[in-house]
Structure formats: C-alpha cells, structure tokens
Amino acid sequence: MKVIKEKHSLVMRWTHWVNFPLLTIMIWSGMLIYWANDAYSITIFGYTFYHFFPDAVFTFFHIPYRLAEGMAFHFLFMWFFTLNGLFYVLYTIFSGEWRNLVPEKKSFKEAWLVLLHDLHIRKTAPPQNKYNAAQRIAYTAIIVMGLGSVLTGLAIYKPVQFYWLCWIFGGYNLARILHFALTLGYLFFFIIHIVQVIIADWNNFRSVISGFEVVTEKPAIISGKPDEERNASDNESLVIE
Amino acid sequence: MEIIDPKNKKQLTVDQKIKRRTFISFATFFAFGAATYEGWNWLYKAPAEPNGVTARARKPLRAALNKTEIFFRKFFSDNHLVKTYPKEMAAKRVRINSNIGNEDKNFNPENWLLCVVKSDGEILKVSLDAIKALPKTEIIFDFKCVEGWDQIQHWAGVRFIDFIKHYKLDDITSMQYVGMETPSGKYQVGLDMESALHPQTILAYEMNDAPLLTAHGAPLRLIIPVKYGIKNLKCIGKISFSNQRPPDYWAKRGYDYYSGL
C-alpha cells in the first residue's frame, strides 16, 4: 500500500532552490566580467580547439561591454551565494544529514556500479540509503566546488589583502583559471543533474519540492516485531526505487 | 495506515493527503518563484543612481558596492603587501590600455609642475627634479586591470608617504580622501587615504629604468598596487585632499569607487 515517506527537509529544499537562481546570476554576471578579458581556450600544440567563448555565445546572451554591470551584480550576489551555501553546510552538520551525503569508503567503488547500472550495462545497483554512491560523491563534490568558487573568488577579488589565499591557489592567474573552471564544472553538473532528474520518476522530482515520497509498502504484519518489520520494508522499497 | 486525528473526525485517505501536500508545496514553490522573478525584475530595472561622484550603476547595486567596500576595508592593512618579483620578470613591452586624459597634444612635460592643494588652500608647486631628489623606490609587481588581465611591471619613483612627509603635509593625512587628476582634468581618481599612504603607493617617473614615455603617463604617474589599473592615473597634474569622495572617472561610469585589491 501507498505510504508517505518524508525525504527532503525544508532546509534542504530551500537551500537547493534558492541556490538555483543565485548560481545562475553568478554565472551570468561572471560572464559579463570574463568577456572583458576572454583569455581562455583549449589549445594544444598551438591549435585552438575551443575558445571560451565564441562571439556567437557572447552575442546571444548579450554579454559584451557590460563589465561594470557584471561586477556590480557579482559582488552583491556573492554574499547570498556564500550565505546560502554556509547555511546548507551548517544544516547538514547539525542535523546529521551529512551522514547521508558524505561518501563512504565503499562509495568510490560502488559509484562505478551505479554508473554501469544507470547506463543499463549492469542489471542491479548496489543497495543504498537515501543517496546512492554516485550521488554521495556528486553532492559532496558540488559543495567542495562551491567552497572553491568562494575562496578562489575571494583570492582574485582581493589578491593583496588575502595574498595568502591567492598563494594557496597558486597565484592570481591560476586562481582565476580555477574560478573559471569551477563554473564549467557547474554547467557539467547541471547537465547530468537534469538528465538524471528526467530519467528518475515524478515521485523523485516531487520530493525536492514537497519533501515527501510515496513508497509502496507490503501490508505490515502486526504481530511480532513491528519496528524491524518497518525497517525491513523501508529498505526494500528504497532498493526498488 | 491512515492517521486519525481524534479532534478532527475528518479522515483523509493517503491519496488525499498526497494530493493536498503536493498542491500546497507546489503552490508555495510557484509563489516563491514568481516573487523571485518579480524581485529580479525590480532590481534589473532599478533606475540608475543620480549623477554625482558615482554614476550609471543601478541604485541598489551602488548601495551594495558601497556597503561591500566598508566590509572589505576592515581587512586593509599596510602590512598586506602586493607580491614583488625579480627584475627579469618585468615585461619589456608594457601594455598601454587607454589614453583617456593623456591625449592632450599641447601638453608640454618641460613646463610641467605638480600642483598640490594644501589644507589651507595654498598651492604647492613641485618640479620633477625636486621629486627625483627624494628617495627613490622601485617596485616590480603584478599590475592588475579591472578587465581581468595582469602584467608584471617595473616602476620607480617616490613613495607617496615619503612625498607627504618631505613636504610636511602630515596634517592632511587625517583627511579621508586624496584626489588626483590629469593636467587637463579629463581623468580623475579618488583614493581613500589609507590606500594612498600604503607603503607601495608610488608617484612614478621611471619605467624599466627609463623616464616615462607619454603613453605611460610622463612625466609623473600614480602607481598604486592596492588598486586596479583604473586608479593608476597617468600624468598627474593636481593632487588635492578632502573628506568627501573626490571625482573619479570610472566611478562615474558604473565602476566601484573603491576598486581595491
């Protein structure tokens, strides 16, 4: 029978959805800034495979000649981006939610099995808790990346006052490259994330807005040990999912 | 598995509960989404600030820039020095990004005198030779442009703090701002006093061991490594002091007034 099962707390949903427009604004305003010195490309042995970014991309998004505007937006929304991220991290720590999120020793091996399963190469996926091994790695990596963006951003924003931070990231130029590369990382994450959400069912998507999931439980046998029975069926339903 | 609230006899089936919670949460989600969109529209379409010392930024964004300046000025210290490099690393071809305020064909460096407006309004005029007689300081550092490029450059001149002390202008250091402008007045920079007095702020007359070229701000320019290039005024005509923000070329064009690094 159908049962409502709580999945994502309000704080998790709040920080997730608040981050979406914030990161979008940060990436957009970052593009306005980057345009003024669009120095990056993928060049191997003098041959440029890709220039970040082609003029068509800049024109399409109305990027050119908006440096001052970009900086003004970037240096306002950096606060909200940082605070939202900080709020999320503190929440996961104090709620104990981090236990579901941080990769375990076995996660790195299991992530392959999850990947093979997702690609329909392998029939079964390893048993999991709230998040599978690949999710644990991805959702932890994205937080580390967020921290990286804030710190590399600070390093190139105030390279004299935070000279030590600039030094940690290998100097002004490397910090700027890392700051840029992390943004590409977000775009990559975003694509995979969206594909996964589409592939997963409505139940899964709904839970990120409503907080709950609907699971099908076998009618519980009231006799015996109800608690154990509950847990067992919980696990089962999660494996099925 | 229905939970029956004894105070409320109405009993909801699981399906009803699912529907109800889904509806409420999605309605809330879209309400917040709409509010966010409206909020963004408000900010994006916010009118520009009135023209003043700063201009052309959206009013709320300018307020944010000024607040952020106050926060980050807490971290400013004379002990935080820009990284310096060996001479060999300095660029031989120093980038010229802009000639704004430095294009006056009639300007003759031979007749040039630096004008310093003292606190009593008296104008102190200083020749290049007098400046060159002061202790010389060299700096090879990574010059950073607001556009995002940077270049290791080699400059030499007199530290602004040394200049102030030599001409016994110490009384003006209690003021909040230093204003500098080109002889024509076309390009101006406003600097907070602490950045101007930073030990690496230099009134430069040499680049790569040679006198400055016109394109680099001859005969005397500002090199202030704790600021973006936009504050490194070429060809100083006048220096003044005040407690209000002095005019600043790029701050009037939407850029952050502080522009500190």
In brief:
The complex is a heterodimer of chains A (241) and B (261). By secondary structure, chain A is mainly α.
Explain this structure to me?
The complex is a heterodimer of chains A (241) and B (261). With 241 residues, chain A is mainly α. Chain A has one domain (2-240): Fumarate Reductase Cytochrome B subunit, CATH 1.20.950. Helix content of chain A is 66%, strand content 8%. In chain A, strands 1-4 form a two-stranded antiparallel sheet. The longest helix of chain A has 29 residues, at 67-95. The two termini of chain A are 15 Å apart. Residues 228-241 of chain A have low confidence and may be disordered. Chain B has 261 residues and is of the alpha+beta class. Chain B has 2 domains: 1-45; 59-97 and 107-253, Alpha-Beta Complex (Sulfite Oxidase, Chain A, domain 2), CATH 3.90.420.10. Chain B contains 5 helices and 10 strands. In chain B, the strands form 2 sheets. A 5-stranded mixed β-sheet of chain B has the order 2-1-10-5-6. In chain B, strands 3, 4, 7, 8 and 9 form a 5-stranded antiparallel β-sheet that branches. In chain B, strand 7 (202-207) and strand 8 (210-211) form a beta hairpin. The longest helix of chain B is centred in the first third of the chain and has 31 residues, at 14-44. Chain B is elongated. The relative contact order of chain B is 0.16. The model of chain B has no long low-confidence stretch (mean pLDDT 93). Classes of the chains: A mainly alpha (241), B alpha+beta (261). The A-B interface holds A 1-4, 17, 21, 25, 33-34, 36-37, 39, 67-69, 71-73, 75-76, 79, 158-163, 166, 172-173, 176, 206, 209-212, 214, 217 and B 1, 14-15, 17-18, 21-22, 25-26, 29, 32, 36, 40, 56-58, 60-62, 64-65, 68, 72, 75-77, 80-83, 142, 144-150, 225-226, 250, 253-256, 260-261.
